[in-house]
Amino acid sequence: MQVSEVQQLQLQIQVQHHHNQETPMCKKIQVQDENNKVVEGDDFLIPPLNFAMVDNGIFRSGFPEPVNFSFLQTLRLRSIIYLCPEPYPEANLEFLKSNGIKLYRFGIEGHKEPFVNIPEDTIREALKVLLDVRNHPLIIHCKRGKHRTGCLVGCYRKMQKWCLSSVFDEYQRFAAAKARVSDQRFVELFDISSMKHLPVIFSCLKR
């Protein structure tokens, strides 16, 4: 299936709940074309873990696996903001090269300790890439799409003038039970005054 055909697909997700001990929830994903015909087998489009739209031309997720590449092609990405220090896998680099996608790497260590500082300068540099519409469409990702990605998106929301309660609600939706007070504290104290000269997209998602 060519990418041009894939882009015409309508994704329909059906969730079936089975209330038993062995399978508390089973998800069945079906893709249908314009004629409502189910596309079978390897033509499924599978988004990365914790994938979501942040704003027009901006997406977020966990680390993309090869099984996600067909889905990512439908986004027509220009850039990827990668927030981990580990080297990018060869298969992912080949995907970027073959699709003309630029990689911006900002190596932020993943810490569970509550008093480890998030590098503010690194977040600022990542925000500059994020705010440059010439890099759109782009996707932000770390390992799970929860903490480092959540901090960057949270700072972006502050620049969009979201209230902190809405910023934290969004962060907690992705981090869930693993939400970190240190991450939310970082976002709360992040000073956007030095970045006010940069253009910010104020979309219908503003809260």
From TrEMBL:
<dbReference type="InterPro" id="IPR020422">
    <property type="entry name" value="TYR_PHOSPHATASE_DUAL_dom"/>
</dbReference>
<dbReference type="Pfam" id="PF03162">
    <property type="entry name" value="Y_phosphatase2"/>
</dbReference>
<dbReference type="GO" id="GO:0052845">
    <property type="term" value="F:inositol-5-diphosphate-1,2,3,4,6-pentakisphosphate diphosphatase activity"/>
</dbReference>
<dbReference type="GO" id="GO:0016791">
    <property type="term" value="F:phosphatase activity"/>
</dbReference>
<dbReference type="InterPro" id="IPR004861">
    <property type="entry name" value="Siw14-like"/>
</dbReference>
<feature type="domain" description="Tyrosine-protein phosphatase">
    <location>
        <begin position="50"/>
        <end position="204"/>
    </location>
</feature>
<dbReference type="GO" id="GO:0052847">
    <property type="term" value="F:inositol-1,5-bisdiphosphate-2,3,4,6-tetrakisphosphate 5-diphosphatase activity"/>
</dbReference>
<keyword id="KW-0378">Hydrolase</keyword>
<dbReference type="InterPro" id="IPR020428">
    <property type="entry name" value="PFA-DSPs"/>
</dbReference>
<protein>
    <recommendedName>
        <fullName>diphosphoinositol-polyphosphate diphosphatase</fullName>
        <ecNumber>3.6.1.52</ecNumber>
    </recommendedName>
</protein>
<dbReference type="InterPro" id="IPR029021">
    <property type="entry name" value="Prot-tyrosine_phosphatase-like"/>
</dbReference>
<dbReference type="InterPro" id="IPR016130">
    <property type="entry name" value="Tyr_Pase_AS"/>
</dbReference>
<comment type="similarity">
    <text>Belongs to the protein-tyrosine phosphatase family. Atypical dual-specificity phosphatase Siw14-like subfamily.</text>
</comment>
<dbReference type="GO" id="GO:0005737">
    <property type="term" value="C:cytoplasm"/>
</dbReference>
